[in-house]
């Protein structure tokens, strides 16, 4: 196993035909567990707005929020590449602002790359960021920060016009200098075509099995977040059930004076 995953190594994984694994992480404890389990990329996603902060979408998440959580994740990993999401309005106002804010994520939070949403409109911004040495992961298709424009979390690329738009976005992300791109919420055949055309790795989420890698929100795959479950999520565990049982057992034993026992007490 590779001692440390780097940006160039992620690109080489596509070239070698190796699938890339990516999961979100928001704190030290989960980062350490996922890293020790061999996950390649830890994405500090702005999805923390929903699964950690309890907000209805990702738009209220701030740059300070992202810096705080990224710092915690970095402390917990040794091998994985840490990528931090750039939150809404931290990169759209100007290229200069984008460089400055991405720089904070690398300098203050110790992220090794940033992720931003958008294709054609973000090409020059991505180019400016990569020119100064900031590794960028793109994100096209269903972009959660644009939910109001889309009218909700809707699959992108279904009709001919939308399909061509997603294609243009994906190509623009590569032209801008991104080292990888997330393909979210699109027909699997479109994602497969894009994956075959691009030289950079594609990381799919609701985009079929032919992408170069896959990403899921950790709270979704472990059954910790149940406000809503997208079609593309597979639950690998029901930790909510496990935690609920443990908490009920604790409460019962406290009420019945069974905890703490002698073995948990000092003399």
Please describe the structure with a list of short key phrases separated by commas or semicolons:
single chain, 267 residues, alpha/beta, TIM Barrel, 2 domains, 11 helices, 8 strands, 13% strand
Write the layout of secondary structure elements.
Blueprint: H1 7-16, E1 20-24, H2 28-36, E2 41-44, H3 48-51, H4 63-76, E3 81-85, H5 95-107, E4 113-115, H6 123-131, E5 136-141, H7 147-150, H8 160-176, E6 180-184, H9 188-197, E7 202-205, E8 213-216, H10 218-221, H11 239-255
Parallel strand pairs: 1-2, 1-8, 2-3, 3-4, 4-5, 5-6, 6-7, 7-8
Helix pairs in contact: 2-4, 5-6, 6-8
Tell me the count of domains: 2
Principal-axes geometry comes out as globular
Structural class based on helices, strands and sheet pairing: alpha/beta
How far is it from the N-terminal to the C-terminal residue, by CA?
47 Å
CATH uppermost class of the largest domain: Alpha Beta
Q: CATH-wise, what's the superfamily of the largest domain?
A: Phosphoenolpyruvate-binding domains
Strand content: 5-15%
Low-confidence stretches: none
Strand order of the largest sheet: 1-2-3-4-5-6-7-8
Q: Element order, helices and strands?
A: HEHEHHEHEHEHHEHEEHH
Put simply, the count of helices is 11
Portion of residues in helices? 40-55%
Mean pLDDT level: 96
Q: Major sheet, described briefly?
A: 8 strands, parallel, barrel
What is the number of beta strands? 8
Briefly note the CATH topology name of the largest domain.
TIM Barrel
Describe it:
The structure is a single chain. The protein has 267 residues and is an alpha/beta fold. The protein folds into two domains: 7-236, TIM Barrel (Alpha-Beta Barrel), CATH 3.20.20; 239-267, no CATH class. The chain has eleven helices and eight strands. The protein has helices spanning 7-16, 28-36, 48-51, 63-76, 95-107, 123-131, 147-150, 160-176, 188-197, 218-221, 239-255, and strands at 20-24, 41-44, 81-85, 113-115, 136-141, 180-184, 202-205, 213-216. An eight-stranded parallel beta barrel has the order 1-2-3-4-5-6-7-8, surrounded by seven helices. Strand 6 (180-184), helix 9 and strand 7 form a beta-alpha-beta unit. It is globular. The model has no long low-confidence stretch (mean pLDDT 96).
């Amino acid at each position: 196993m590779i001692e440390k995953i780097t940006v160039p190594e992620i690109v080489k994984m596509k070239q070698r035909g190796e699938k890339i694994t990516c999961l979100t992480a928001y704190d030290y404890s989960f980062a350490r567990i996922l890293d020790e389990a061999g996950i390649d990329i830890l994405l500090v996603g702005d999805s923390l707005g929903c699964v950690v902060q309890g907000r209805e979408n990702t738009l209220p998440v701030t740059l300070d929020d992202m810096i705080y959580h990224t710092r915690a994740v970095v402390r917990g990993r040794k091998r994985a590449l840490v990528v931090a999401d750039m939150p809404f309005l931290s990169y759209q106002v100007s290229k200069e602002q984008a460089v400055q804010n991405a720089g904070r994520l690398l300098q203050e939070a110790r992220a090794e790359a940033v992720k931003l949403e958008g294709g054609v409109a973000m090409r020059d911004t991505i180019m400016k960021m990569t020119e100064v040495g900031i590794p960028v992961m793109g994100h096209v298709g269903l972009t959660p920060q644009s939910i109001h424009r889309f009218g909700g979390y809707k699959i992108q690329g279904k009709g001919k016009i939308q399909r061509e738009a997603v294609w243009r976005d994906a190509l623009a992300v590569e032209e801008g200098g991104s080292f990888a791109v997330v393909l979210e919420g699109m027909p699997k055949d479109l994602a497969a075509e894009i994956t075959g055309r691009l030289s950079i790795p594609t990381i799919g989420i609701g985009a079929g099995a032919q992408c170069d890698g896959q990403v899921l929100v950790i709270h979704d795959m472990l059954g910790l977040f149940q406000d809503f479950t997208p079609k593309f999520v597979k639950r690998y565990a029901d930790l909510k059930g496990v935690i609920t049982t443990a908490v009920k057992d604790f409460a019962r034993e406290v009420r019945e004076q069974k905890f703490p026992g002698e073995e948990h007490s000092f003399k």
